[in-house]
Write a structure and sequence with these properties.
Structural class of chain B: alpha/beta
CATH superfamily of the largest domain in chain A: Cytochrome C biogenesis protein
Oligomer: heterodimer
CATH superfamily of chain B: Glutaredoxin
Distance between the termini of chain B: 57 Å
Number of helices of chain A: 6
Radius of gyration of chain B: 20 Å
CATH architecture of the largest domain in chain A: Orthogonal Bundle
Number of domains of chain A: 2
Helix content of chain B: 40-55%
Radius of gyration of chain A: 26 Å
Number of strands of chain B: 7
Number of helices of chain B: 6
Strand content of chain B: 15-25%
């Protein structure tokens, strides 16, 4: 058990060794947490399946620096998002904003759920209206 | 009767979408600036740090803005074609030398030739971000009002030039 724990702790720490930004960007832990949250949500445009937190591509490093700068200037998360989207498009944010184009992404699940609900209600109503004769009660599906 | 055909219809619609999706290249991101003014920039000139290259240089003519760097292999690949284009002299090529070192960039141009009217030197990549650059090389087509007409990503070649740029330039000059 002890060995297992040691192993887990060592493995857990080893990830820190490979972190891209070895130094903290902000002294303030609140700002640092906000920064880490922000960079985890921005796509590295040149290495598309990574966020800029995990990538050491030039562009990812540049975008991290820009985000640090904007945060230092006191910009809000929305303003930082706007900065990125105006340059790189909605694609750059892992959580796309609700705009005309992405509205379907946000609404489609609810629309599908609504369809499914309507379908269930209709099927159930239809079955309830069937006569309860011997055969259907006993045999279920014919 | 309709209910038996519905699944078929749904599948056909999905297949059409899937088939179209196959042809999409996820690496191609459209520029956010198409039809909009080119991002404002002012950079020290690569060759003469006391001079600048900015939007003002692009005004009044159809021009190209090429994003390049010496560490970028695609830029080396397209350099020969850019030289050819510059020799024809049909369209001025401006450059943003992106995230590079001045000495490497200068020796690159003196060895392989300089196709650019002027190169801005974007050492820290700030202007690259403003232009929405995600990898060199990229080539922007700018109209006489300084608006972005088109962006090409990857190394330029004669084929790509004939296909993507020539018709657009002809349209701009009509």
């Amino acid at each position: 058990m002890k060995i297992l724990m040691t192993l887990l702790v060592t493995l857990g720490l080893s990830a820190a060794v490979f972190a891209i930004d070895s130094e903290k960007a902000f002294d303030d832990p609140v700002q640092q947490a906000r920064y880490e949250e922000l960079i985890a949500e921005v796509r590295c445009v040149t290495c598309q399946n990574q966020n800029i937190k995990d990538s050491n591509a030039f562009i990812a490093a540049d975008l991290r620096r820009e985000i640090r700068r904007l945060m230092t200037e006191g910009k809000s998360n929305d303003e930082i998002g706007e900065f990125l989207v105006s340059r790189y498009g909605d694609f750059v944010l892992y959580r796309p904003r609700m705009t005309g184009k992405s509205l379907i992404l946000w609404l489609a699940p609810f629309v599908l759920l609504l369809f499914a609900g309507v379908a269930i209600v209709r099927v159930v109503r239809h079955r309830m209206s069937l006569p309860l004769d011997e055969q259907t009660e006993e045999g279920g599906a014919q | 009767m309709l209910r038996y055909f519905m699944p078929l219809v749904v599948i056909i619609v999905l297949l059409v979408f899937f088939y179209k999706g196959l042809g999409n290249d996820p690496g191609v991101l459209p520029s956010q600036y198409i039809g909009k003014p080119a991002p404002v920039f002012e950079l020290p000139s690569l060759k003469d740090a006391s001079r600048t290259v900015s939007n003002a240089d692009l005004k009044g003519q159809v021009s190209l803005v090429n994003i390049w760097a010496t560490w970028c292999t695609g830029c080396r690949a397209e350099h020969g074609f850019l030289m050819q284009l510059a020799e024809q002299g049909d369209i001025p090529i401006y450059a943003i030398n992106w995230r590079d070192r001045r000495d490497s960039a200068l020796s690159f141009l003196s060895q392989l030739g300089d196709p650019y009217v002027a190169s801005g030197f974007d050492e820290d990549g700030r202007v690259g971000i403003d232009w929405g650059v995600y990898g060199a090389p990229e080539t922007f087509l700018i109209d006489p009002d300084g608006q972005v007409v088109y962006r090409f990503t990857g190394p330029l070649s004669d084929a790509a030039w004939q296909r993507e740029f020539v018709p657009r330039i002809e349209e701009l000059r009509q």
